[in-house]
Amino acid sequence: MTGSASPAGAVVGVPAIPGRRGGWWHEYVCPTHGTELLAARGQVFPCPHGCELTGEPFEGAWTVLAHQAAARSLRRLAVRARGGDRAAGDAAVAGLARYAELYERLAGETHPDAQGWMLSGRLFQQALTEAIWGTSLAHAVHTLAGSVDHARLEPAADMLRALRDGALAARGVLVERDDFRNNYTAWLNAAGSSASRALALLGETDQSAGWLTGEHGIAAHAAASIHPDGWEWEGSSYYHVFVLRGYLLGLRDCAPETVPADLLHRLHDMTAVVATIGTDTGGALPALHDTPYAGPRWDDEMYELCLLSAGLPGAPSLAHLAEPLAARLRPDLEDHWRSEEALGWFGATRTAAEVPQPRSRLFPDAGYAVLRGAGYQAVLDLGPHGGSHGHLDKLALYLYGPSAAWQPAYGVPPYAHPLRRDYYTRTAAHPTLTVDGADQREATGRLLYWHDDVVGGFTAVGAEADVYDGVRFERHLRADTEQLIDVVTVEADRERELVLHLRTDVDVQVLRSGAGTHSHWPGDSGLTGWHAAAPASALTTGADLGPADDPQRSRPHLRWRTVGQRAVFVSVYSPGGVASGISIEQAGDDLTIHVQRHRGEPVRWLVPNRRDGVTR
Asked: How many whole angstroms from its chain centre is CA 330?
């Protein structure tokens, strides 16, 4: 790394740029422990648990991360240059020139090590990786265009033209495969649009309109891949944010009135999804389907989304997520350059949007029901499988506090590790039902009812899923301010092993006494659970793998097991410990749950059934 002094006296360095092609970043994972590796120490790639790995594929995977970090650093330097830091501008120009030479030398043909299933890139194994990296470089040039002599950016301009051509060709392959709605397309369009806008600032004819409103542009992709309820079609928290970020990055300098009305509406709806499912104070999203459980890179991407969406007039505010994210990232925010870069992103002064009030909501297309009470949030997964990023977790119930992950979705490790398929996408890793120890089959659940009773002060939802032959499986939830009632009913064609799994990321304690079985879930103000089953069955607990960010962090795995043809499992959860016991009453087709409480009147819930489908 070379450097020069800025006017303030700080040394400004050209980012360290690897001199080789990148591999596939998902291989940057410890084969022994399943955890993502730490930053490289020379040619050693350390694991958090002490392993020291060398060679391939780790070197190629680390090279991807190093290239992406270098591209982000060029964006940061460009922002500083826009603020008057001449040394930062010089460093950014030098870094771009180095990349232009590297790209011309190494990226003339598709990557020789790309795996057969990949959409091959040139500098990277994947064209997707190249598009993400190229989008950052395009934004660095875009920002620099107003700060340095355009002649100094001509090598970078040649590279952007090549990147734009590569994005167009890769998008064409997806279209030919009838895979246009793939999340890759969002980033190929982002790269093509961002490169076009940067080149237009350098005097070239602006080609960005085709990337926005063309046959396969941003607007067309959003129409094809975003559900009417605002969710990206795969139902993954990560890929929803991933695609939304790609759209917003590709729309730089587009005043809202120039964005097609349908696209603008979808951007608002996509942002509303994030605002709704985000935890109140933790700044996190449930790790639904193939989503990282936690980590600084995921935080950084979420923080960027919060800043970009803040400049889009009419979009719901994500300030309740941005503030805790900024607190976690603060040591690495590097003088808040992302915030400075996002100013005027849509050609308008940033305006303060209203933070949505937390509320229960059904997303009927993606198939998520979000239920909220005082101090808790529940998410029921009842929708489509979600393609290659789906999990075998139909009718799973996830529970969160404002910052605690009581019964969370566990997420997935980097894809190259076998634990992704061997454990984290499988049914028993999720808080749902298994029959005879088998995984659920890929399926779409069916909504039985959704009842949001403002006057009565509760929300109820019921769903069923055909995931085992000969088994009828339903889940019913009733949420009010103080507590959540969870009822799982199972009817089988013969005697079978029925197990309801409860998965945690806290050291939950389960206690059995004369009053029944209850549990305590630490975190925030704590969560108390009461549990009863018919026929009576033991709720057992034992250590198992924890969330996917570190499979070595064991967590209690609660198994509620019975053998028979029918079973009812009932839990009542309350952050304030309001419930004091529960009982189950069955009379013909009627199932009634009675909840005793320490204060106030008992709750009696007649669970809806197929016969009437009405909440009572």
From this structure: 21
Note whether 165 and 147 are within 8 A (CB).
Answer: no
Q: Please tell me the distance from the alpha carbon of residue 244 to that of residue 240, in angstroms, as a whole number.
A: 6
Tally of CA atoms within 13 A in the half-sphere of 73 that contains its CB: 21
What tokens does 524 get? Answer: 């925030």
What the block records as the tokens of 274 is 């994030």
Residue among 414, 436, 429 at smallest CA distance from 297? 414
Tell how far CA 351 is from the center of its chain: 26
**Rounded to an integer, what distance in angstroms lies between the CA atom of residue 195 and that of residue 205?**
12
Residue 439 CB contacts under 8 Å (≥ 6 apart), including other chains = 392, 426, 427, 428
* Furthest CA-CA distance within the chain: 83
Cβ proximity of 374 and 359 under 8 Å: no
Helix pair 218-225, 183-201: axis angle to 10 deg: 160
Q: Is 243 helix (H, G, I), strand (E, B) or coil?
A: helix
Q: Mean pLDDT of all residues in the chain?
A: 93
Cα atoms found within 13 Å of the Cα of residue 295, Cβ hemisphere only: 20
pLDDT digits (tens, 9 = 90+) for 295-347: 989 999 999 999 999 999 899 999 999 989 988 887 655 557 888 899 899 98
Report CA-CA distances (Å) from 490 to 145, 258, 392, 460.
Answer: 63, 53, 17, 19
Q: Which residues pair with 521 in a beta bridge?
A: 527
| Cα 220 off chain centre by | 23
Q: Three-state SS for 11?
A: strand
Q: What is the pLDDT of residue 358?
A: 76
Whole-angstrom Cα distance, residue 92 to residue 112? 30
Percent of residues in the chain assigned helix, strand, coil, to nearest 5: 35, 25, 40
CA-to-CA distance for 500 and 518, rounded, in angstroms? 16
In the structure encoding, which two tokens stand for residue 148, read together? 């340095």
Question: Are 418 and 26 contacting, i.e. CB atoms less than 8 angstroms apart?
Answer: no
CA 405 – CA 114 distance, rounded (Å): 37
Burial 484-495 (b: 16+ CB within 10 A, else e): bbbbbbbebeee
Write out pLDDT tens, residues 63-80. Answer: 999 999 999 999 999 999
How many other CB atoms sit within 10 Å of the CB of residue 360? 20
Distance CA(550)–CA(552), nearest Å, equals 5
